[in-house]
């Protein structure tokens, strides 16, 4: 019997979230706004599940789209 190379295949969406702030309603009245904080995070249903499973010790394979 062949040994499995991974425990879980996650297929679906992968996104790269950019969180900016602070903002208020006046941000929509200007062309340019200087931001104090910019944070980056991974996201998407399949990517989040893959990351959590890997943290639990599983061998994870990821397949999906970026967008």
Highlighted features:
3 strands; 67 residues; 1 helix; single chain; three-stranded mixed sheet; alpha+beta
Task: Provide structural commentary.
The chain has 67 residues and is an alpha+beta fold. Helices cover 16% and strands 42% of the residues. It contains one helix and three strands. The chain has one helix at residues 45-55; strands spanning 8-21, 37-43, 60-66. Strands 2-1-3 form a three-stranded mixed sheet. It is elongated, with a radius of gyration of 18 Å. It starts with 7 loop residues before the first strand and ends with a strand. The model has no long low-confidence stretch (mean pLDDT 88).
Topology summary:
Layout: E1 8-21, E2 37-43, H1 45-55, E3 60-66
Parallel strand pairs: 1-3
Antiparallel strand pairs: 1-2
> Element order, helices and strands?
EEHE
Distance between the termini: 38 Å
What overall geometry do the principal axes of the alpha carbons give?
Answer: elongated
Q: Note the main sheet.
A: 3 strands, mixed
Low-pLDDT runs of 5+ residues are: none
Class of secondary structure makeup: alpha+beta
Mean pLDDT: 88
How much is the radius of gyration in Å?
Answer: 18 Å
Fraction in beta strands: 35-45%
Give a summary of the structure in a few sentences.
With 67 residues, the protein is α+β, with helices and mostly antiparallel strands. The chain is built from 1 helix and 3 strands; from the N terminus they run ββαβ.
